[in-house]
Amino acid sequence: MSLFRKKSISAMSADAGHDGHGHGLNKILTVKDLTYLGIAAVVGAGIFSTIGSAAADGGPGISLLFVITAITCGFSALCYAEFASRVPVSGSAYTYAYVSFGELVAWIIGWALILEYAIGNIVVAISWSSYFNNLLQGINIHLPFWMTTNSSAASEAYTAVQQSLATGKVADADMLEIINGYNSAPMLMGHKLFMNIPAFVIVALITALAYKGIQESKKSANAMVIFKIAVIILVIILGFFYVNTDNWNPFMPNGFKGVLQGVSAVFYAYIGFDAISTTAEECKNPQRDLPRGMMYSLLICTILYILIALVLTGMVNYSELNVDDPLAYVFDKLGLKWIGYIISISAVIATTSVLLVFQLGQPRIWMSMSRDGLLPGAFGKIHPKYKTPAFATIVTGLLVGIPTLFVPGSLMTDLTSIGTLFAFVIVSGGVLLLPRINGNQQAGKFKLPYINGQIIIPVLVAAFIYAFRTRFSEAISNFGHENHQEILFLLFVAIAIVVAVYSILKKLSVIPVLGALSCMYLMIEIPTISWLWFFAWMVLGLALYFVYGYRKSKLANTAA
Q1: Which CATH superfamily does the domain covering 42-138+198-431 fall into?
Q2: Per-residue CA distances from 162 to 55, 157, 173, 180 (Å)
Q3: CATH 1.20.1740.10 boundaries in the chain
Q4: Which residue spans traverse the membrane (predicted)?
Q5: This prediction's pTM
Q6: pLDDT, tens digit, 9 for 90 and up, residues 385-413
Q7: How far is CA 226 from CA 22, 33, 161, in A?
Q8: 3-state DSSP: the chain helix, strand, coil percent, rounded to 5?
Q9: Can you tell me whether residue 372 is helix, strand or coil?
């Protein structure tokens, strides 16, 4: 069927490295650079911000969720590594889906990856603006209120202050700043104007750096990674001396369900390690170094996350951590404000590095899609001097920068997580469909170990159903009155049973199956509203495919 036409690995490799006009990307990245890029993408807003809300729900047990999420990402990372070794082409999960599932699924994944990279960067830019503004206030520089937020957040803050004052509370400096800032905001067409100027400015600067070249980008990313890792290690070492083990009891105050409530926030801390795969055509030795860079960065970040989670929940009670800057908060509470200030600087640098890696990733995915005819040719053109996908980089900057001026970032976090998990499911499943290596094909330098899942997968699925038997039976008995979350749970169980049966019949490999199933499970724990937005996003993407990509596909035209 033409909707599922596949592109061969040899054809994908032949198209790589150039734009058809004699211009190619700059091959300079080593395994060290790739590891740094992975850390730059992963250690960002998650460790400095969202870890607080996750800890408030799960308590010290949130460290277990980091382990679970790391294992989930580890399965996916191994699958990414297999693909990166066999198909060393920019495009990440889009490219991998094209050679395994076919064109329609590749388009869907390419469209979903916009949620991870472009939409995800909106969240990061808004977070960066908050850190930067706090940093300025620490040195007594106050930007106008209307220049540092969006209308939705401004209205919420103003309403919250008015409600506090109505209870008789005396206005403090922060409350007065919100009131005065809200009332003094300029008017535009009868409405108060609020724009997050710092968020827009940092996106513009990062886009300019990504446009200039991979050499400049890699040097900047490496320097930022060294600094923020040094700060995190300092936080872990100093925090260790202030840990009160009584704060770790109870370890899971809200049970395992409470731990899982933080899945979106914790997974958001991990997204981005796959961004390494978008730089495949700029690696000196992609088949060897891409798998190593992915695994090294994931391992380092997991260790740091677990230690930070244990230190934070040991320094103060978990219930106090539902703040925007939990790392700075715990040290400020202990009177170590100088540490909090260093952390604020590091948070600004950390989120800057995440912005940079994601602004590198999105244009390279669009470049690959353009080569295949699914996007206009301008997206695939490489700058003759800077060796970057210039037009795609500019469009990415506009797509991220303009919304940061006006939109709130709360919903975007869940949308980013669901889009990323969806890509991980496809990559994990795609490994099972990779063509066998024959005499005419060169094997990659990383081979996913085969473990027969004929017995292991059914046993694990049965163990899962037994462990969640109460939830399963309640969802069945109350099916007609159940919420959408539990319907998703029942759907996951049904898929897991089918996969278990198929594993018995086909002797499927354990690692990719576990990667796909574990990512699916994390997906169902994301709030239903995010699923509705995700489906709406997918419908829009499919409409664009049938209007443009289906007719312009180079693979279809070649076959014709």
Answers
A1: Amino acid/polyamine transporter I (1.20.1740.10)
A2: 29, 9, 14, 12
A3: 42-138+198-431
A4: 34-56, 62-83, 104-128, 193-211, 223-243, 255-273, 294-318, 338-361, 390-409, 415-434, 446-467, 487-505, 510-526, 532-550
A5: 0.84
A6: 888 899 999 999 999 999 888 877 666 66
A7: 36, 12, 40
A8: 75, 0, 25
A9: coil
